[in-house]
Amino acid sequence: MLMFILRRMGIMFLTMLVLTFIVFTMVNLEPNLKKLALEQNNTRMSQQDVEVWLEQEGYRRPLLVRYGEWLGKAVTGDFGDSTRFRMPVNEFLPERIGYTGRLMFWVMITMVPVALAVGILAGMREGSRLDRSLSFFSILTSATPEYVSGIIFTVIFASWLGWLKGVTNVENVTFENFALPVMTMAFYGVGYIARMTRASMAEAMTSQYIRTARLKGLSFPAIVIRHALRNALIAPFTVIMLQFPWLLTGVVISEKLFNYKGFGWSLVEAADNNDIDLLLAISLVSVALVIVTQLISDVGYALLNPRIRVR
Amino acid sequence: MESLSFFGIWGHAFVRFWPVWLALLMVFVLGRLLRRHLGLFGRLFDSRIGSIGLGLVLFWVFTAIFAETVAPFDPLAQFAELKRALPGAVDSGSGQAFLFGGDNLGRDLFSRMVHGSRFVLLIAPAATLIAYLVGISLGLPAAWYGGRVDDVLMFIANLVLAFPVILLFYLLVTPGIRETAIPNVMAGTFFLFPPGFMLLLFYTRYAPRPLVFWPLALLVLVVGGWLYAGLVFDADPLGLVHLQPNELNIFAAVVAASSPGIFRIVRGLALDIKTRDYVAAGQTRNESPWYLMLWEILPNARGPLIVDACLRIGYTTILLGTLGFFGLGLSPESPDWGSMIDQNRSFLRIVPTIVLPQTIALALLVLGLNLLADGLREESLKD
User: Is the sign of the CA dihedral B236, B238, B242, B245 positive or negative?
Assistant: First the structure.
């Protein structure tokens, strides 16, 4: 087990190294550097001034040398300065991650119980009318990306009913302005987890030990709660863990849609303004998130299910 | 200003779609009559979910085909007095109504929605197809040979999958990138796969019969070379095949984002199927590895792959919408659904209905594809 985790950590560092190098190369392409120069000074700067500025700021030195410098600093925990926000990345980014963490937390709190309930109810009597309508609901939610559901929810709840607000604010989070982004993100994710839960629940319900329990004369609720659930929830656990990285795209869309200035919003700002250091730090964080959750889901799966052996 | 009533709007919209209804009716009547002879596709008509999905998808396919007839206005034409018009407002010049209202520049939302289906239904299936050929051509050998090849390909696939899609698009789909050779190099690499795949497919099967193989190979080379020249270098001698630089850029980025997922699915299926007896039988006949991969393993993996392809076209539709929503790569006036959502959402407070046509259109198409996938899965499990 330890070897497995260590090897995965090794692959993780290799992945991060390669990815940051790719991002570094992309943001240092000629058109992107010009964009940065124009954004940092004024947009009507002449071609010559751009060249002078790039030379002066050291962007004209060899790519590998500069990547090495960035890497050397990043290893010691210094991620450089954001050109867009004019402050060190280390000051700027953790705060934004905190805001997004709060959003993610509430999304998970609403999404997971709803999805599990839908999946269990649908899967416990496969093929019933309840199963059919809940399955249709899951398909519907996974067919509505955030920019669709977010807008439809805003029209219904903010414009027509006037219950909620369509714009949120990171400093002052209330139910009124925070419910829409949470709903929007949770809605898209519900369907996928619910379908996984349904499949694994339906499979558990056809197994031998459920038949035995039924033959013993146990009531249906007792069978579902005491016998089926425990085995049926292993697969969804993995799926829920793997949702985290996938929520990242949703975070970017919802934060842009509702103007919530968190991690996703920073990504959009950094990419729009070719903010090199900030973009690199953001890619590092997101890649680490993806790989760490994969690792946790693999290890957790092995712990929950004794039949799985990791090598 | 004159305006249509609620029922008037929907009545008119219904009538405008007449070629679509006619085509749908024909498909469903013919499909029901011939369903015994159509295999998996025919059995879709027996499943309710599957028929609803097929209906929704075909609705948008036919809308894209008949867009010129269905749309009352030019999607780019602007009418100054109908800026942000409510649904049903009548244009005094032509006497035609803006059925779903007008956008901020006074363009007809209904016509833009109808024309928007063209972009999606052109790029999404084509990009998925190319991504599939890339995924299959790399996934099969990864599963077959294992070892070093597998490790390297898996590492690359996981690398792309670990990359947040949005960031990938922000880096790959920008006007700046189009000044460099990157989109052309990427598209050039991806478009090598279809002709390569076809050549390999025919070679493994027909190599002992040169009279069959060479005409086929020549056909692939001519058609493939023609499409390749037109799509990648924009140098089609006949002037028929042509992609805008930004469309090529989007195409390459979408293929890059979706082929690693397909690679993993194909690899997983192939790992399972290669242990079957018929593959072992082929090995004892001394068939070449590529023959076994392409003619024994691949056909037996088709069920899950068809279902996944439907889901993936839906996912690509969502990706294209995301690109439009972030204003990446598409021209500002292009009537694609994602850009329309982004441009109109700031006026949501003034006219709430301004954002609805394009959002609902996109959701319906993706819903149709997902239902179709579900119907196909259900029917293929009955075997």
Answer: positive
Q: Minimal Cα distance from B49: which residue of A?
A: A136
pLDDT in tens, B243-252: 777 888 888 8
Distance CA B370, CA A140 (A): 8
A147 and B161 within 8 Å at the Cβ level: the answer is no
Whole-number Å distance between alpha carbons of B272 and B266: 10
Q: Nearest CA of chain A to the CA of B381: how many Å?
A: 14
**Both tokens assigned to A65:** 């040398």
Q: What residues of B are in contact with residue A264 (Cβ under 8 Å)?
A: 166
Q: Is residue A78 classed exposed, middle or buried when 0-12, 13-18 and 19+ CB atoms within 10 A define those classes? A: middle
Distance CA A180, CA A177 (A): 7
Secondary structure class of B97 (helix, strand, coil): strand
Give the chain A residue nearest B157 (alpha carbons). A15
Q: What's the complex ipTM?
A: 0.85
pLDDT of A229 higher than 90: no
Instruction: Compute the nearest-CA separation of A150 from chain B (Å).
Output: 10
Pairs of CB atoms within 8 A across A/B: 130
Residue B56 has, within 13 A of its CA and on its CB side, a CA count of 23
pLDDT at A22 over 80: yes
pTM of the predicted structure, to 2 decimals = 0.87
| Mean pLDDT (whole number) for B173-201 | 87
pLDDT in tens, B302-339: 888 888 898 899 989 988 888 888 888 777 777 888 88
How far does B129 lie from chain A, in Å, by closest CA? 20
Q: Identify residue B346 by its one-letter amino acid code.
A: S
